[in-house]
Amino acid sequence: MPQVSIPLALTFPAEGSLLFETSGSGEPAVVDTVNNVILRLLTSTPPGKLAFTIIDPVGLGQSFAGLMHLGDYEESLINRRIWTQRDQIDERLAELSEHIEKVIQMYLRSEYATISEYNAQAGSVAEKYQFLVVADFPSNFSETAVRRLQSIAASGPRCGIFTLIHWDQRQSAPDGFAPEELRRNSVALVRAGADFALAGASPESGAKLRLDSPPEPDLAGRIIHKIGQSSIDSNRVEVPFSQVAPRRPRCGWATPPTSCVWRSGAPARRSTRCSPSARAPASTPSSPARRARENPPSSTSSSRTSRSRAVRSRWSFTSSISRRASSSVLRHQAPAPRPGRGHRERSRICPQCPPAGGRRAETPGRSFSAARRAGRCGIQEGRRRRTYARSLLLIDEFQEFFVEDDAIAQTASLLFDRIVRQGRAFGIHVLLGSQSLGGAYSLARATLGQMVIRVALQCNEADAYLIMDDTNSAPRLLSRPGEGIYNDAGGAIEGNSPFQVVWLPDDERDDWLDKVHGLAHQRGLPAVTPIVFEGNAPADIRENDLLRAALTTIPTAPPAAALAWLGAPNSIKGPTEAVFHRQSGNHLLIVGQRDEAALSMLGATLLSLSAQHPLGTARFVIIHSANPGTPEFDSIERVVHAIPHEVTVARGQDLAEVMNGLAAEQKERAVGTEGHPPSVFVIIHGLHKFKKLRQEDEFSFSASESEASSGAQLTDLICEGSSLGLHLIATVDTFNNVNRSLSRKALSEFEMRIVFQMSANDSASLIDSPKASNLGLHRALFYNQQEGHLETFRPYATPTPEWIAEAAVSLAQRRGGVPA
């Protein structure tokens, strides 16, 4: 009778599991065959598409020691190591059971019969296939582990999990073990003398089963190393940002002749390729995300454990939004609390993106009030009248607002709740991000309940319930970096939609943002610099858009009230500014032992005031004691040379002459002059250093008459000059020196005051508050006594010589009356 050789092959997913039934442990034929099957699986599958969980309780890993080389390249290929102990076996089987649960609930559902059908459409986010390898079962298997193994054997193949099991029948089976469960879901091989045969095969058939031998150890080793090298970073999934970026009309947009960029407004028909920040797998074609984009909810909550992936998801989200909506339609407000020194001040990042019409960015409360005053009931009405832009508030690590149960946390909670509940009617939408929602203090559950969109990356079970709801723990099953769950049903399990965050490298992100910037320039939209709050650094004067605009515009008339920009605020508003009206008390006093910061503030004030006045409408008098050749002297000289207006620079020996001239001008203005005399700004840096200007010297027996008159003239200038357009800006190092330099009457005329860190008593004496005692290195308080206003801000750093030179070029255009 002729003999025919037919290969016995595993077929997936129907018959991809293998069961050896023997009456001994560690049989060489079984071990060799299983190793051979693993090598063939690895060599016939693309790198990174397979993962093995290996259990060897008797051999302690020796049976599969050669495969450990795979872990040297990519640990996920063999689940970190070979497992041998009872508790380890329980944990690994629990992980596989959770993976099956995730695949069934999140990917397959009722749409796909097997993971293979799902992977055919999932592309780069396809699930890998997993193999559970068990030697000498049931050694070290608990009753729980046996039940899980049977469940995996039954449900695993549909979800891409297959088993390669050696069953040592000499060992007594634990309670609950049903052998038929394994046999029914596996290709079972049994001993037939010295060979193996298919379980259930008829002996009369004469069929014999010959198991192939594995390759020689050297060849097997080379294969393993080659596969390992090819599998490096194979667990990393990178969905390119281009898949979610706006496309040309073929993507489904109804109207744009060139592209989908900045096509916001009424929702238009689009394809799933235009999803905002991530790609959803094939099981859910982005429909929930699309519905949320077309009818944005009040807010979005996000939590994660992988910081780099989550930060890049924020970049992807904001970059995509910026590509779809111009600054006339959308503005970003992004506070970002960070732990560290001074974090209790709640650091902020506030892009000062103006809405339509070029108005300054408003706080949410202002938006509500403005809408009510205008009689508008929501954003759509405002958009119809072209008055409002949408606002997107992004807060990373929002939990930092609630690290302590104090007044800050209580106020933040109330404001969050108001914005979340009412904001969407006014076009204000919120994106909150945090590594964990757990902790002693957190945002109120009622507020989170108003946030219908939940986005969760990999997290623990406790956070999963907090992010979603009490019945939805699906995020705990996530395993791949960047894998997440999008839920637009308030966390209900039926709203789960798995997705993969797109990967946006730094250079590609910068390229997209450059394109957005170029489009803004092409359409004539003004460039707006975000105000970035960095608690450990001074503010940057180059980020002051108002000053930039003033420097590049030639004024035609003097301002009704001149502004001196001092620094960046700790709130969502424009730069901190001192306003000089022609009325009593409009002087500015700067107190504190921060000489460099005070000098920088004086330089910013000089440039600010100079930029707002046409030639001939302002004059500056600068009194200082800096010695030539010092950095302080050079800094003053650079600013002075940049100013096109009349500037008088005086030092100690010039005081009498300067004060006499100011006193004469004050008397002349008090009598009355025709027209509108120019404003005069007298800047004294280090008032305490000039004894001739001290009020006490007027009564000193050793003082000359000229010295006493200079002090009296200064006091008279302070008390009467501001209403005549003569304003004084002075710096003093300590409160004690303030009392030595100024009389109580003169001090009361400085209604605008800036203080740096000082004692609580000195702070209370100067600004009616002890808050200056808690100021950090790069902080100051601005106090306006007339308005009862107290504001924390970051003073500007010393401007670079290059920036001052650029400002000088812009200001120099005024001498010829020709715009820059």
Quick gist of this model?
The chain has 820 residues and is of the alpha/beta class. Helix 9 (307-324) runs parallel beside helix 15, helix 17 runs parallel beside helix 18 (631-642) and helix 19 (655-671) packs across helix 20.
What does this structure look like?
This protein has 820 residues and is an alpha/beta fold. The protein contains 24 helices and 27 strands. Strands 19-18-27-26-25-20-24-23-21-22 form a ten-stranded mixed beta sheet. A hairpin with a 4-residue loop joins strand 26 (780-784) and strand 27 (789-795). Helix 3 (86-108) packs parallel to helix 5 (143-155), helix 9 packs parallel to helix 15 and helix 17 packs parallel to helix 18 (631-642). The protein starts with 17 loop residues before the first strand and ends with a helix. Residues 249-258, 264-279, 282-296, 338-363 and 697-708 have low confidence and may be disordered.
